[in-house]
Design brief:
transferase, three-stranded antiparallel sheet, globular, NADP, signal, single chain, 10 helices
Length: 261
């Protein structure tokens, strides 16, 4: 069991794509040609998610496939993605040249934003359990997870995933995704990388830490980074007021991705 300080995850890639999601959509098919590698966890998860949704006779949208693929226990796309997200923000070069989840990061970020925008914004009290790491923190600090953090409305369910650190979280940017998950009873709420929290309380036992976090604000060092690098070097880009991702299910993208899988 390792001990680790909870911090602001300074190397996280935390793009919110504010004002440029419609521009990013146009880049997906080209980006996917390099990121959708046969036999990768990304490809397998996408293919499996598509099949599950088809068997359920569910809506086959990019949003639905993205969230289903993320929540699948196997292959562990969520682990691969989050490990990469925590270091991709180290520099612009790191993101552009070494981050192989540009499409998935965008799709997942957009899905969470669309779900949040679809209903009046509300906050949730959730729980997150961690195994093999005892996190430390000081009351009053500002922290964030810095990756897509799964949590549950049910504490018992959360502790099944780990009990060396238990987070009691009030999140105002996390959204329920159980309608799109493999299992409804997990009552999963997914917290985006950019949400920040104030540490309200820390209780330390011998081999266990309980940390209470309250939603504070957002913090993102990056915004529309891929679009900026591709289109805005020689002329300034005017990122207009944020627009929701098109309700068009992007059939061209789905068909291309499924064919590659």
């Amino acid at each position: 069991i390792e001990e680790k300080a909870l911090d602001m995850a300074p190397n996280s890639f935390d793009d919110q794509y504010l004002g440029c999601r419609h521009m990013m959509e146009k880049e997906l098919e080209e980006l996917n040609r390099t990121e959708f590698v046969p036999n990768s966890n990304y490809t397998k998860a996408w293919k499996n998610a598509t099949a599950i949704l088809q068997n359920r006779s569910s809506e086959l949208s990019v949003q639905a496939i993205t969230l289903m693929a993320y929540t699948l226990p196997e292959p562990s796309l969520h682990e691969d993605l989050n490990k990469a997200v925590l270091t991709a923000g180290r520099s612009i070069d790191e993101y552009l040249n070494n981050f192989d989840f540009k499409v998935m990061h965008f799709l997942l970020s957009s899905a969470l934003r669309s779900l949040r925008d679809a209903k009046p914004h509300q906050c949730y009290h959730v729980y997150r359990g961690i195994n093999n790491t005892i996190y430390t923190a000081q009351r009053g600090e500002t922290v964030r997870f810095g990756y897509f953090a799964s949590s549950s409305l049910n504490r018992t369910r959360a502790e099944m995933y780990g009990n060396h650190t238990i987070f009691l979280v009030q999140t105002c940017y996390g959204v329920p995704i159980w309608d799109y998950a493999l299992s409804y009873d997990h009552q999963e709420v997914l917290i985006p990388p950019f949400e920040t929290f104030e540490v309200m309380n820390v209780t330390r036992e011998k081999n266990r830490s309980v940390i209470e976090l309250h939603a504070q604000a957002v913090c993102n060092k990056y915004n529309c980074q891929f679009v900026k690098e591709k289109h805005c070097k020689n002329q300034p880009c005017d990122f207009i007021a944020d627009q929701s991702v098109s309700r068009d299910p992007l059939w061209g993208f789905i068909l291309a991705a499924t064919a590659l899988a």
